[in-house]
Design brief:
Distance between the termini: 56 Å
Strand order of the largest sheet: 4-3-6-7-8
CATH topology of one domain: Immunoglobulin-like
Order of helices and strands: HEEEEEEEE
Low-confidence stretches: 21-29
Number of helices: 1
Shape: flat
CATH class of one domain: Mainly Beta
Length: 153
């Protein structure tokens, strides 16, 4: 038994040594070329929506206008799946979201299973955007929450 433990310790040390040698080393004293900052061109007015999903007691879908014009007739769809058996779709409409402003929708859920949320938002003058979140539902509290916005297609 001691032989196997010794072998494992030596193997671990060798592996750590290999990883240390293979990893790129950057010294704090190395000179780095300064990067030229190129000013961005100003764009024409545009509208874009962003979805942020947060969880805790239930979950919240926050729709933010990150553009420079008002988002008109914003429609939001939330697809909620709990486990394999319960599925619900909820729709919300907002007449206008000004640039930099947000609208939040809070939903309370109950169960003992995995939860998956897909949120879609679009406006008359903005493309459709998607936010996805998943986690574990313990009665009314969502844990191990992971949310992301997939790239636009």
């Amino acid at each position: 038994m001691k032989k196997y433990i010794t072998l494992m310790i030596i193997g671990t040390l060798v592996l750590c040594g290999l990883l240390t040698v293979a990893a790129p080393q950057i010294s704090a004293n190395e000179y780095v070329e300064p990067v030229e900052i190129i000013p961005q061109k100003t764009h024409d007015p545009f509208t874009a929506l962003q979805i942020d999903l947060t969880a805790g007691v239930g979950f919240t879908a926050k729709i933010t206008n990150i553009g420079t014009e008002d988002a008109i007739n914003v429609s939001t769809q939330l697809d909620i799946s709990i486990g394999n058996s319960r599925h619900k779709t909820v729709y919300y409409n907002t007449s206008k979201i000004s640039p930099g402003e947000s609208v939040s929708y809070k939903r309370f859920v109950f169960g003992l299973n995995g939860i998956f949320v897909a949120a879609y938002a679009e406006a008359t003058n903005a493309l459709r955007t998607v936010g996805i979140g998943m986690g574990t539902l313990l009665f009314f509290y969502i844990i191990q929450w992971y949310a992301y916005n997939p790239p636009d297609v």
